[in-house]
Each structure stands twice: as C-alpha cells, then as structure tokens.
Amino acid sequence: MAAEDRNDTPDGYASPACFMHEVDPAYMGLEMDGVGSKAWRKAERRRLIDRRVLLGVSERERRTAQICGHLDQLLPNIAGRNISLYWPFLGEPDLRGWMASATGATCLLPVVAEKQKPLIFKSWRMGEALVRGILNIPAPLNGEERLPDIVIAPLIGFDAQCYRLGFGGGYFDRTLAVLEPRPVAIGVGFDFQEIETIHPQPHDIPMDAIVTDTGIRFRKESTAVFGSEVRPAP
Ligand SMILES: Nc1nc2c(c(=O)[nH]1)N(C=O)[C@@H](CNc1ccc(C(=O)N[C@@H](CCC(=O)O)C(=O)O)cc1)CN2
Ligand SMILES: Nc1ncnc2c1ncn2[C@@H]1O[C@H](COP(=O)(O)OP(=O)(O)OP(=O)(O)O)[C@@H](O)[C@H]1O
Q: Which Pfam families match (predicted)?
C-alpha cells in the first residue's frame, strides 16, 4: 500500500504534533522582526507542509477539483492571457489538468534562473520536455520566455489580508516587486493552510486573491480586475 493511501481518512481529529502555532510568537520569545519572523516561519512551514503531505490521494484530488472550479469562476476569460502556474511538489494542488484545459491561454512555468533573483517565466504545455533546473525544479526545455499577466502562486500559509507564506526563498515577492506591469497575483492552497496572520514583513507582497477548496478570498485593497460577477461590491 502506498504511504499516501494509508492516510486516506478525514483529518482533524488527532492532535497536531506541535502547538507552536497556537502560541503568541512574543510568548515564544520571538519578536516579529526579521530574525524572529524567520524562526517562526520555519516552524509554521514545517507544520503546514506536514499537514498537506498527509492528505490522502483522493482527498487531495477532491479538494483540487474544487480549487479548479473556483479558478474557472475567478478567471472566466483567459483567452490570450499568459498565466503562470507551477510544477507541483510536496502535496501542492496539482493544477496541471486545469492548465491543459486552459484553451486560448499560454501557460507558463516559473523558472529560478539565478538563486535569490526574481523568477523568469517560460511557456509550457502538457507533454513538452522539461529539464531539471536550479533547486531541482523542472523547467521547460524549449519554452519561450514571456511576462505573465496572471501569476498563480502555490502557498504554504495565508491570512485574511491575502498575505502568502511561501516556500521560503522569497522568489514570488522578489518577482512581484519588479514585474512591470504588475500581474494579477493569485495564491492557491487548501483551506486548512489559513493562519491568523503571517506577520507580514516589509518585503511581503499580498496576493490580489486567494483560491482554496472552500472559496475565493479577495484582498480588499486590491484593484485587480477579475470576472465582474465574482468580485464583491466594494
Ligand atoms: N511548485 C512550486 N514551484 C515553485 C515554487 C513553489 O513554492 N512551488 N516557488 C516558490 O517560491 C519557487 C521556487 N522556490 C524555492 C525556494 C527554495 C527552494 C529550496 O530548495 N531551498 C533549499 C535551499 C536551496 C539552496 O540554496 O541550495 C532549502 O530551503 O533548504 C526551492 C524552491 C518557484 N517555483
Ligand atoms: N524583494 C526582495 N528583495 C530582496 N530580498 C527579498 C525580497 N523579497 C523577499 N526577500 C528575501 O527572501 C527571504 C524569504 O522571504 P519569505 O520568507 O517572504 O519567502 P516566501 O514568500 O515564503 O518564499 P517564496 O516566495 O519563495 O515561496 C527573506 O529573507 C527576504 O528578505
């Protein structure tokens, strides 16, 4: 039996291995400056990745299908757009099926061209060749480099203000800080990845919206344009 199958039961009953996330960081002796925030984020990432990885296969697929439905609702007109998605790892929602169905759009994969520098984006379609890139992330072999209109960024945690806790390289923040024009940024993850606050730091750039299996959350201050029928009136 595959390890993932053994966990194909509803979660939420067992106690988490660590209650650190329920403790006020100040109580942990962590000031939410650059140093304290790094330690707190490391612990939160570990806890949230563990929870995500332990989702059973069918539960992950069920939730991912709901995420795809919400993406369709949020982005009804993607023809002609350049949309960055991602090659999934560590239990991230696998949106490759959604990518394949995004007719008329050009799908891109983010590429770490240089460590600690903004990402670049290359076009990719299901079936096209990939190479092992920097940090072992698959990257399109022959894709055309393009700027995205829409960036769909996988997340490890998020909060009600649409701040995203990512994998810890700062790659999406660095990228959104320099892309001109600024693309629409959408975080994707599962509902249990919501936390009270990610304790945003000056470099953190919030998402315009966050899509999970249970819904779409819009950042109040965002001016991004989505399908008009889904954006709540200000
Ligand atoms: N599927 C997916 N693709 C993605 C991201 C993601 O979160 N998910 N990224 C989201 O940003 C970017 C890649 N971010 C990454 C950040 C750190 C490491 C990593 O392995 N860090 C090592 C140290 C690496 C080293 O310097 O040698 C580590 O943390 O131990 C990998 C990818 C772009 N592509
Ligand atoms: N615009 C930027 N310029 C320079 N450094 C940055 C920038 N944005 C983030 N960083 C650095 O990257 C590091 C990781 O940032 P952070 O913890 O926000 O990553 P993350 O958003 O979780 O990761 P990722 O976006 O790769 O998934 C931090 O030390 C931060 O200083």
A: 5-FTHF_cyc-lig
Report CA dihedral (139, 143, 146, 150) to the nearest 10 degrees. Answer: -60
- In the chain the domains, ranked by start, together with CATH numbers, are 19-224 (3.40.50.10420)
What ligand has the least distance to the C-alpha of 135? Answer: 1
Span from the CA of 55 to the centroid of ligand 1 (angstroms) = 21
| Burial class of residue 95, CB neighbours in 10 A (0-12, 13-18, 19+) | buried
pLDDT by residue (tens digit) across 103-129? Answer: 899 999 999 999 999 999 999 999 999
| Class of residue 134 by CB neighbours under 10 A (exposed 0-12, middle 13-18, buried 19+) | exposed
ipTM summary value:
0.95
Instruction: Evaluate: CB of 34 within 6 angstroms of ligand 2.
Output: no
